[in-house]
Amino acid sequence: MTIKEFLEGDKFALMAGVELMEVGNGYAKARMEIRPQHLNGGGVCQGGAIFTLADLAFAAATNSHAQLTLTITSSINFFQAESQGYLYAEAKEVLNRKHLSNCEVVITNEKGEKVATFNGTGYRKEARLPFSPIEDKPTF
Amino acid sequence: MTIKEFLEGDKFALMAGVELMEVGNGYAKARMEIRPQHLNGGGVCQGGAIFTLADLAFAAATNSHAQLTLTITSSINFFQAESQGYLYAEAKEVLNRKHLSNCEVVITNEKGEKVATFNGTGYRKEARLPFSPIEDKPTF
Amino acid sequence: MTIKEFLEGDKFALMAGVELMEVGNGYAKARMEIRPQHLNGGGVCQGGAIFTLADLAFAAATNSHAQLTLTITSSINFFQAESQGYLYAEAKEVLNRKHLSNCEVVITNEKGEKVATFNGTGYRKEARLPFSPIEDKPTF
Amino acid sequence: MTIKEFLEGDKFALMAGVELMEVGNGYAKARMEIRPQHLNGGGVCQGGAIFTLADLAFAAATNSHAQLTLTITSSINFFQAESQGYLYAEAKEVLNRKHLSNCEVVITNEKGEKVATFNGTGYRKEARLPFSPIEDKPTF
To answer: How does pLDDT run across B78-94, given as a tens digit for each residue?
Structure first.
């Protein structure tokens, strides 16, 4: 099993249309194309959809060491509304400790403008995940 | 149009299976039944799904005054994993100013245990929404 | 040694004039009288002073079990400016796990109005603190 | 009056020993030397002191446009404990709107290691501040 296969078991992210593009050591990139099903009553991409995109990138980056990491808290800032095109989430782990992880995720639109920023804290369990830890080089 | 009809225009919350139960003045309650589509790779309800549930309750409570309120930042703490049954989100506005709103949302399971807590800050625009402001008493 | 003595070793909180009023099991109350030294350039109590007050209440509540708990992340919402009188911080632990703690702190003025809310996540180390765990009843 | 003089009116930051090093357009850098008065009961720099350092850098960056900006919410992540030497806070504004600002602050030690990260959201009032807006180039 690869980390990509493991994370594709996330049915909610799948339903939201989130695609994992790249996973490295403490790093990940994902994207989501805004479709009618992502829009809120105001006609713009719903906050929960953007959170789901960011959260999958966070999960990929923080689980890249193959040690199960659970989100304990996260915060998200919304900067501008988007109603079409792709959104990208790039996650970079800032803290990588035995039991704790902190990871920043920047969400951009197709023009590279910041749409939102996300910061998450993860708690590492003892459990090893069923794939090899990702080495330095981002993969696939 | 009622606030319920306005918020049911949120297609992402709809796809996630979030149902609005009650809206009052600066107050709202929503629920979501955990289904296979909500589960992540670990078999528990995905964080983005819980965020979406909380965010709809937040949107209902903060827009209950019929003045358009956009989320600018929110944070969520996850306390325990759930894999079945209903989750409930109860939102209470703590701050209600002309341009700013702050609202706390508590997410519980069927046993009443806290699953997560959410805090959101909203920015009020001048735009009036196409329904009457909700009076003190929670409705429907 | 008592938990009060332990926490009075916090020289920064002491310099800020924070006084611990009460500690219970997962509970604490502290206060701080706003003085000229707490004011910012705008003549109101500085955010860092309010954070310090909230943080001491958080530290007392989360360390009340006599197991060393370190803050890993916290967020604070500011609702209204204050320039005189006492501020009170009441901390209630929401999550109390072997390795994790979450605690909400409400900061009020003398009229009981909410001035700020604070939410903190703590990580519990194995180390026992040199005092007895606080039983259910708030003390001193 | 300069922005430096304006911010030096912050008596709490002054008491905490925070020094403003540089202010640019949406940018600021500050430092604080850890002294015995900053230490908590565990002998390390107290979270409130680090918050105060970060908050002054935030205030300088977000008020650099000479339009009064108040903090409405902020979050801080603590990565490692420090007990001596200088701490540095570097603030960069990410969002600069008419009424809203978002600013990231990175706190490092003398070795350049990340000690904490801070993210704050500010609300801009109509009031102009009594100094000229800072142009692109960081100053003093």
So the answer is: 999 999 999 999 999 99
How would you class A64 by CB atoms within 10 Å of its CB: exposed for 0-12, middle for 13-18, buried for 19 or more? buried
Closest-CA distance, B110 to chain D, in angstroms, reads: 31
Residue recorded with tokens 């929503």: B30
What secondary structure does DSSP assign to C61-127, as a single string? HHTTTSEEEEEEEEEEEE-----SEEEEEEEEEEEE-SSEEEEEEEEE-TT--EEEEEEEEEEEEEE
Q: Is residue B127's pLDDT more than 90?
A: no
B70 CA to chain C: closest CA distance, Å?
17
B51 contacts A71? CB cut-off 8 A:
no
D14-34 pLDDT, tens digit per residue, is 999 999 999 999 999 999 999
Residues of C with CB below 8 A from D72's CB? 77-78
Q: Which of C16, C70, C72 sits opposite D48 (nearest CB)?
A: C16
Q: % helix / strand / coil in chain A, to the nearest 5?
A: 20, 45, 35
**Closest chain A C-alpha to C24 CA, distance in angstroms:** 25
Rounded to the nearest 10°, the torsion over CA B39, B45, B47, B50 is 120
What is the spatial distance between Cα B125 and Cα B111, in angstroms, rounded to a whole number? 38
Minimal-distance CA residue of chain C relative to D53: C48
ipTM: 0.95
**Burial tier of B93 (Cβ tally within 10 Å: 0-12, 13-18, 19+):** buried
Cβ contact (<8 Å) for D102 and A79?
yes
Q: How far is CA A41 from CA A48, B140, D7, D16, in A?
A: 13, 20, 43, 47
d(CA A124, CA A97): 8
